[in-house]
Amino acid sequence: MADADAVHIYAGDPEVTQYTSWGPNTWEDTVEFVERACASGGPQNLAVCLRGTGELVGAVGAGTIEHGLPEANALEVGWVLRRDKWRQGVMTEAVSILLEELFITPGVHKAVAFIHSDNIASQRLAERVGFGLEQRLDVPQHAAASEVFGTFELDLREALPPPPAFAECDLKYSFVRAGAPTTFQPL
User: Fold this and answer.
1) Residue 42: what pLDDT?
2) Dihedral through CA 128, CA 162, CA 75, CA 77, nearest 10?
3) Which secondary structure element, helix H or strand E, spans residue 122, and what is its range?
4) Which parts of the chain register pLDDT below 50?
5) For the chain, what is the mean pLDDT?
6) The pLDDT value given to residue 177
7) Short-list 174, 134, 170, CA closest to 151
8) Which CATH superfamily is domain 2-176 in?
9) How far apart are CA 185 and CA 187, in angstroms?
10) Is 39 exposed, middle or buried (0-12, 13-18, 19+ CB in 10 A)?
11) Could you state, in order of their start, the residue ranges of all structural domains in the chain?
12) Half-sphere exposure in the Cβ direction for 50 (13 Å, CA)
């Protein structure tokens, strides 16, 4: 299971996973994740592979919003990259491509990323690809502080009740597709 070996390099690394809601993985956790990801067949988890070699070095993904209140026409995105590939532009390119692909999908008008406030590198990545800080979330004092970043081309925020408490993130970033409607309705 070559993919599991490659995934475990980053998924088992405490420094890589310190701001994620999962990990560091045991070998068994990684094998289970890879089997589940391969069986899903959707864009929830996509491998990031180096051009030329095909070496698997990380992942990007999109799915229903798990860390905050659900939003019509919006998906939550996330990313993770092997430590020896940090600061080389790999994830900037991968997240940019993911966003392009997401917005081809009819009905998807917004992407959100929930990022830990201490994870400066992911905040900067989010900003580089067009996300803007939408909201600082309230989290319990015992929870680790975190941030959610996003990019807005339109200010589409509405008054919402506070999101449910979770430990991973206290900042919400979002990215809205150009030409998106000013209000979102379920399709």
Assistant:
1) 60
2) 40
3) helix 120-128
4) 140-167, 180-187
5) 77
6) 63
7) 174
8) Gcn5-related N-acetyltransferase (GNAT) (3.40.630.30)
9) 6
10) exposed
11) 2-176
12) 13
Q: Which residues of 8-33 are buried (b: 16+ CB within 10 A; e: fewer)?
A: bbbbbbeebbebeeebbbeeeebbeb
Q: Is the separation of the CB atoms in 149 and 113 below 8 Å?
A: yes
Name 59's bridge partners.
Answer: 47, 80
Question: Are residues 138 and 165 in contact, defined by beta-carbon separation less than 8 angstroms?
Answer: yes
154 sits in which H/E element: none
Q: State the pLDDT at residue 179.
A: 53
pLDDT given for residue 90 in this prediction: 94
User: Residues 74, 111: contact at Cβ < 8 Å?
Assistant: yes
